[in-house]
């Protein structure tokens, strides 16, 4: 697959920034993603991200690390962090910025370490791709979690993007869950392959989490239908 994100991050980091990434979904028009935002420091991060980083403890896995913003902050706080991403360019940028432990790998292929904190930020449920994959990812995340560990993950309820009926209900697709989107990313006249990206409303996420042996807690709500959740292994889970 074309590494659109990695190419853009490398260009920005190496001083070759002339334009930003363009994103588009199956339910929205083209929008610019400023590359500068993908290199933000702690004080520029949204409150939910800041809170997730403050709650991180012990050995930490940063899933979908991008340019390494979260990993760098946690390293500076003295935490042992492994940063992973499916974008080879992103991993190269993270390395060059000083992230000490990186791995170019898909989450489901990571099997040789366990962690006290697993961090999935900037709509962390997006990597689940589709609703049908949620249990598979949650079960794999469990195998990477130390006893007493936590998963910190944020997402949004995107029902606000759909039209509301006279009865107060919303018009959502009949053939799929409304939080299942298809994204396309373009950069410098190059268009990447479409990819699936999942947003989960809190009720559905809690149901999925509890059915997979987790306790589910909403830590905080953001300003735009987003929220930060913490998943921990339930005391009565058969996985304990």
From TrEMBL:
<keyword id="KW-0489">Methyltransferase</keyword>
<keyword id="KW-0949">S-adenosyl-L-methionine</keyword>
<keyword id="KW-0808">Transferase</keyword>
<dbReference type="Pfam" id="PF08241">
    <property type="entry name" value="Methyltransf_11"/>
</dbReference>
<dbReference type="InterPro" id="IPR013216">
    <property type="entry name" value="Methyltransf_11"/>
</dbReference>
<dbReference type="GO" id="GO:0032259">
    <property type="term" value="P:methylation"/>
</dbReference>
<dbReference type="GO" id="GO:0008757">
    <property type="term" value="F:S-adenosylmethionine-dependent methyltransferase activity"/>
</dbReference>
<protein>
    <submittedName>
        <fullName>SAM-dependent methyltransferase</fullName>
    </submittedName>
</protein>
<dbReference type="InterPro" id="IPR029063">
    <property type="entry name" value="SAM-dependent_MTases_sf"/>
</dbReference>
<feature type="domain" description="Methyltransferase type 11">
    <location>
        <begin position="61"/>
        <end position="153"/>
    </location>
</feature>
């Amino acid at each position: 697959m074309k590494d659109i994100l990695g190419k853009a991050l490398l260009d920005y980091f190496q001083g070759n920034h002339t334009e930003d990434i363009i994103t588009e979904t199956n339910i929205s028009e083209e929008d610019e993603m400023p590359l500068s935002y993908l290199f933000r420091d702690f004080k520029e991060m949204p409150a939910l991200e800041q809170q997730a980083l403050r709650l991180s403890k012990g050995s930490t896995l940063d899933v979908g690390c991008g340019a390494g913003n979260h990993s760098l902050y946690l390293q500076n706080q003295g935490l042992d962090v492994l940063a992973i991403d499916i974008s080879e360019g992103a991993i190269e940028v993270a390395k060059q910025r000083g992230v000490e432990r990186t791995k170019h790998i898909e989450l489901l292929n990571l099997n040789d370490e366990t962690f006290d904190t697993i961090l999935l930020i900037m709509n962390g449920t997006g990597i689940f791709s589709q609703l049908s994959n949620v249990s598979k990812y949650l079960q794999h995340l469990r195998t990477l979690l130390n006893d007493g560990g936590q998963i910190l993950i944020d997402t949004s309820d995107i029902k606000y993007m759909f039209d509301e009926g006279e009865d107060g209900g919303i018009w959502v697709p009949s053939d799929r869950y409304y939080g299942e989107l298809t994204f396309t990313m373009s950069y410098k006249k190059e268009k990447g392959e479409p990819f699936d990206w999942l947003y989960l409303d809190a009720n559905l996420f809690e149901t999925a989490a509890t059915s997979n042996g987790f306790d589910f807690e909403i830590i905080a709500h953001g300003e735009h239908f987003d929220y930060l959740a913490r998943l921990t292994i339930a005391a009565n889970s058969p996985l304990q």
